């Protein structure tokens, strides 16, 4: 699971700096950087705030961060087939329309 990278990619896609997102979430830029680099694992309440500020549901952030290793071995083939399409759809659906 790579939730930090998903947060970083989503933040950048929405045109926000680390400092802007951190301020809106009530956390430091340093802490957000650590989250994005997967060196700190935030608690659920912090993830909820981040997802709200990014305007993307928390379950979607979790799904987008899934890797093949996170899926049961007997379901990996199906995951590999549907994952690219589902992630593409999600990215299109939640992308800011400017």
TrEMBL record:
Matches recorded under Pfam families: HTH_3
Residues annotated as domain HTH cro/C1-type: 7-61
UniProt key word DNA-binding: yes
The entry's keywords: DNA-binding
CDD domains listed in its UniProt record: HTH_XRE
Stated name of the protein: Helix-turn-helix domain-containing protein
Organism: Flavobacterium artemisiae
């Amino acid at each position: 699971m790579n939730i930090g990278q998903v947060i970083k990619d989503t933040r950048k896609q929405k045109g926000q700096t680390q400092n802007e997102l951190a301020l809106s979430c009530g956390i430091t830029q340093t802490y957000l950087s650590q989250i994005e680099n997967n060196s700190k694992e935030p608690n659920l309440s912090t993830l909820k705030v981040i997802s709200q500020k990014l305007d993307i549901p928390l379950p979607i952030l979790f799904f987008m961060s899934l890797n093949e290793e996170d899926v049961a071995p007997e379901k990996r083939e199906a995951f590999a087939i549907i994952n690219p399409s589902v992630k593409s759809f999600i990215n299109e659906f939640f992308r800011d329309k400017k």
